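To whoever picks this up:

The parser on our side crashed when reading a file containing two proteins. I've narrowed it down to the boundary between the first structure block and the second sequence. Both blocks are reproduced below exactly, byte for byte. First block:
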Amino acid sequence: MLKLLFLPALLASALVYGQTASPPAQWSHAKVLEKQLRDADLAFAKATAERRIEGWMEFFADDAAIIREGKVLSGKQSIREFYTQVFANKDFTLTWVPTKAEVSKDGTLGYTYGDAEAKVGAQVSRGMYVTVWRHVGGKWKVVLDLGSQPRQQPKEAAAPSQQQ
């Protein structure tokens, strides 16, 4: 019974001290890294829009890979060779916006994902992307990038009463 009397006081003091205490350093560091990662993804998109292939390539690690249409491009040189042709088309644009950024507990890896849009002239392709990043020398570098187009949703099946 005595324990029950002290429970409200313990809860109240935990709430008061919890609200005034600063968050753990590890939590703060993780949030800082997540913001840096999101900012890196936004800078990646901006550099790509402004400088095309050179802006695109600036963010890749030497050992990066891209999964595109069921195929893997491995290494920065292979990625450059493939995308040089893509970005050579002046009608081609690629834009994206991250909706999520998360960093590993040790701060060495992270990922972003969000919505992407590729245009070639009037043809527009929309989808989602996932980018895996590695924190190296104070900078975030892309180690894996992949995208997908939205699946065509099947037409609604007829209600059971309409199938007869």
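<<boundary where parser fails>>
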Amino acid sequence: MKVINPFLEFFLTNRSWKQTLFKNTLWLSLADGVGKVLRVVTVVLMVRFLGPTEYGRFAFAFSFVTMFSMMYDFGLLWVATREFSADQKTQQFLPELLMIKILLGIVTLIAIAVGSVWVTEELIIRIMVIVLGLYLLTLELGSLAYAIFRARQKMEYETVTKVTQGVLLFVGIGMVLWLNPSPLSVSYAHLGAGALFLAMIFGAFRHRGWQLAFRLRWDFLRQWFRLALPLGLAGILVALYMNIDSVMLGYLQRFAEVGWYNAAVKTIQGFVLIPITYSALASFPMFTAMSVNGDPAFRKSWDAWTGWMIIVGGYLTMTVIATADQVVILVYGEAFEPTISALKILSLVSMMMYLYMPYYHAMIIFKKYSQFFWCHFVGAFVNVLMNVILIPRYGLYGAAWTSVVTHLVILSVLFSFAARHTQLKPVNEAFLTAILGSATSGILAYIVMVVMKDNLWLSIPLGTIVFAGCIFGLKKIKEKVWIRG
């Protein structure tokens, strides 16, 4: 045990910023590695069993509901995580947060029900919309646990929770696809898994001594909503521009295109964005604490982290572009060939997200909530306008290019706001070095993967080795030049 205990302690305690970031990222990556694999396999099963059109109907209903998803939370989870990280005494307000989320959930479900009447005439899709709306409510109520886990930087608890959620969803959907494959039955499977997940969360909290009393204090309500309002409004805008394209395609009865487009979106979300998503979540409490405490190492740590995210993003983007033709056919089948071009276009979106996601979180860390809102207001305006113009004419490809332009606008605005309103400087030596290294290594890796494209299982490993070797070589060259200078 003397050998094992220090090993376990490294992964269960917080020591330094590097060790804490590594520990938190590892646990969240493990959660994502299991949870995402289960969800991706589930999506592949739905695609295979339902086909482009029926999967498109489900994706249309789910995208419509997701447009309302931020109304369930209204930014309270991010505010709670930040406030709990800065002062753990504020965790006593968890019951009030639960009551607020329940009230928000009721209002949101009413809005979803009313909206479903306007967006579709198909009764089955309207039922699916209500069922999926209830499913998202169960997830939002359970997500309060994440605020506690992240504030205490105990991501191992979040790992167990998310893996459990992923297993429940996978088993539920797998069963209905085997017994009765239809979009409606898949929707009911989501709700069943979500309800069971919520019951387990509440049971675990009661076991740990937490009393989740249903109480509400109006002074608390005013204070927290004042903090959360810009984040909540921004979140609504994000949900709008992330889902309006699928909703518009479905409204135009182009359900097959919804299926093709969402297959590309799920591929990006399920694989490409994993590192930045969970690295950002893992580092958020740590960087919040460092900024509050005035840690002099904050800027250096931030630049190192953002640099590595740029490098990872460059590698994944080039890999998707080089291998999309083979991957789509292998995973989804010949019926999803139109997904290939959409996936290549959306890979550009993922690269921009790797560039701007740290500064997305910086707006919250430094409490620049109004700037956070205006950034997404501009992005949503551009997105809706371009979708209205391009989707009727170009379908899913118009939606894909609209996403590229939208995220380019968001990147530009976030960089401007971060430079003007925080102590961070997005465009600096570390940023330019990471961009140069990522682009050079990515191009070489792309060439290798394209040359070897007939053998997917060989091209990706070889491309990875070339990319990593180039990054390592450039790093050594930079160190030698710096020492000589």
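After patching the parser it read the second block fine. The radius of gyration is 22 Å. DSSP finds 17 helices and no strands in the chain.
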